[in-house]
Amino acid sequence: MRSDLKSAKELWGWTKTLGISISLAMLVNIFVLQPFKVNGQSMEPTLQNAERIYVSKLSHTFSYLPEYNDIVVVDSRVNRDRTLKDDLLENPLLMFSMGKRDGKTFWVKRVIGRPGDTLEFKNEIMYRNGQPLNEPYIKEKMVNVPDAKIVIPENHVFVMGDNRNNSDDSRVIGVIPLDHIMGKKLF
């Protein structure tokens, strides 16, 4: 009898430890650090298809405005509000969330414009606030880009892939709300 009680207590101890460990791992993954996989060639030559990156989620958790040239992961579903429920259900530690973490939803891009900036595409050159951008990280010069002018509204950013001629980005879906920036690439 005493042996059964000792076994039950030991089992309960292991179960509590496992539960606490899984809960802590989920909290870290939701609010602090999360892995993402690059899908496609839109960030070449900086990042390659299928490369794994780790993203600080602190900017998402505390609504920090990213800096110019930061590489970020964005939720491309900009026509809907994001909620805490999205963050919980899209956690890669949950088995049923895996289908939502595809390259069609979460995009890895570079921040080009911040709130209040005026971006202009003129003669296939990118200008920010009247100054041509020096972009040594892009794969090749943009071609077949119609002239356009965009003013970035408050609480939004403009993102583009480094492979400008092969990237779906803010030129396709528009500006990105700050709450749709999932995090900033660390390594």
Automatic annotation (TrEMBL):
According to UniProt, the reaction catalysed is: Cleavage of hydrophobic, N-terminal signal or leader sequences from secreted and periplasmic proteins
Picking any one GO molecular function of the record gives:
serine-type endopeptidase activity
User: EC top class, in one word?
Assistant: hydrolase
Q: Which UniProt keywords apply?
A: Hydrolase, Membrane, Protease, Transmembrane, Transmembrane helix
Enzyme Commission no: 3.4.21.89
Can you tell which superkingdom this protein's organism belongs to?
Bacteria
Q: Which Pfam families is this protein grouped with?
A: Peptidase_S26
**PROSITE patterns for this protein:** SPASE_I_1, SPASE_I_2, SPASE_I_3
Mind telling me which residue stretches traverse the membrane in this protein? 12-33
Q: In this protein, which residues make up the domain named Peptidase S26? A: 12-185
One BP annotation, GO: signal peptide processing
Q: Which family does it belong to?
A: Belongs to the peptidase S26 family.
Q: What is this protein called?
A: Signal peptidase I
User: Can you name the source organism?
Assistant: Brevibacillus fortis
